Amino acid sequence: MDNNILSEVIDVEREIQKCLDREQEKARDWLAKVKKECADELVREEELIKNSLAAAEDQARKEAEESAASSLSAAAALVEQRDHLDRALLQAVVDKYIRTILPGSS
After folding, report:
1. Domain ranges of the chain
2. What is the pTM of this model?
3. What are the residues whose beta carbons fall under 8 Å from the beta carbon of 99, sequence distance 6 or more?
4. pLDDT in tens, 28-54
């Protein structure tokens, strides 16, 4: 009788070990699946970030080009104005400020 009980205990222990082994295998499979999903999600997110960065760079480049063009237009307008100023008027303005800057030239 004792041998029979011992055999049953050993059989139950073996069955428990088999169950544990199956659960460990399931856990390993689940972990591998989750790792792959995370890696795939990381690749997708990296691609989204790269695309977003490229779009932001394009937008910044476009804005910089527009700003530069505007600055060049403004500078060209100032040059045009300067080129059309009356020389006598300019001389009067320069003389006025030179008198205040240089001592004894009043």
Report:
1. 2-101
2. 0.53
3. 105, 106
4. 999 999 999 999 999 999 999 999 999
Rounded Cα distance between 47 and 44, Å, is 5
Kindly give, in sequence order, each residue whose CB lies less than 8 Å from that of residue 106, ignoring residues fewer than 6 positions away. 99
Tokens 């499979």 -> residue: 29
Residue 101 near residue 94, CB atoms below 8 Å: no
Phi, psi torsion values for 105, nearest 5 degrees: -105, 15
The 3 state secondary structure assigned to the chain is CHHHHHHHHHHHHHHHHHHHHHHHHHHHHHHHHHHHHHHHHHHHHHHHHHHHHHHHHHHHHHHHHHHHHHHHHHHHHHHHHHHCCCHHHHHHHHHHHHHHHCCCCC
